[in-house]
Design a protein that fits this description.
Blueprint: E1 3-13, E2 19-29, E3 33-37, H1 44-51, E4 59-64, E5 76-79, H2 93-98, H3 113-125, H4 141-153, E6 159-163, H5 171-184, E7 189-193, H6 197-201, E8 206-211, E9 213-217, H7 219-224, H8 226-236
Parallel strand pairs: 3-7, 3-8, 5-6, 6-7
Antiparallel strand pairs: 1-2, 1-4, 8-9
């Protein structure tokens, strides 16, 4: 299996004293599907931000697609937490998706027809065409999450990062979302943050338990129940550090 992320000895502190992450080591492979779990404050979102180069580790090294993470950003799609979406902002679903391409464009430049065609195809593939002109605030939680995934996909990523994508969506939308991620996983690696131990373990290939330090569980650990034991231990004891 080709390694697309290799993290070695990653440490991070916001105040220069207390580490949020300590000696974090892991690898993510091509077409991997990782469930990242842990308590609030355990470092999950921080780790995603390090992969995205929004934060820089205080110690250690991380390579993404064999490159410095900054040079690999165009290969990564990101879906932020539901709560980070401003529902009052007057923007259409189409404009939200097209905004995923702005990082590659010069200020004031317009979208090319090729880029519009790509977005149109993604709307079609995700069965979102009927929502194209709707304001993002008019959509249901599940519809908004699919729009945010479409925004990430318009970049043609080889790695998709999702930060608690099932928060504030109903059970049916959650099921549809996991079905979509299963389909997408055939073409890209996925790392999704979740608090739902039982649900996430039914869908992913591997579980990473993170609470300052990290424990990586393979698929065999998930089916044997070992991963579930680690997850419940780390979730229900915020002071716990798994070695």
């Amino acid at each position: 299996m080709n390694t697309i992320i290799k993290a070695t000895g990653i440490c991070f502190s916001y105040n220069g004293q207390n580490n949020v992450l300590t000696d974090v080591n892991f690898e993510v492979y091509e077409n991997d599907y990782i469930g990242l779990i842990g308590p609030n404050g355990g470092g999950k979102s921080t780790l995603l931000k390090i992969i995205l180069v929004l934060l820089k580790p205080t110690q250690g090294k991380i390579d993404v697609f064999g490159l410095n993470p900054k040079k690999a950003r165009d290969k990564i799609g990101y879906v932020p937490q539901y709560s980070k979406i401003d529902l009052d902002y007057p923007i259409s679903a189409w404009d939200v998706v097209m905004s995923g391409l702005l990082g590659n464009k010069k200020l004031g430049s317009s979208f090319r027809e090729k880029e519009k065609d790509k977005a149109q195809k993604i709307f079609d593939d995700l069965k979102l065409l009927h929502l194209k002109d709707h304001a993002i605030g008019e959509l249901s939680g599940g519809q908004r999450q699919r729009i945010m995934i479409a925004r990430a996909l318009v970049r043609d990523p080889k790695l998709l990062l999702l930060d608690e994508p099932t928060n504030s969506v109903d059970i049916e939308s959650e099921r549809d979302l996991y079905e979509l991620l299963h389909e997408l996983n055939s073409n890209m690696a996925i790392i999704t943050v979740s608090h739902d131990v039982d649900v996430i373990s039914r869908h992913v290939k591997r579980i990473f338990c993170l609470n300052n330090r990290i424990v990586c569980n393979d698929a065999t650990d998930i089916t044997s129940g070992k991963a579930s034991e680690n997850m419940k231990k780390i979730l229900h004891n915020p002071e716990c550090i798994i070695h």
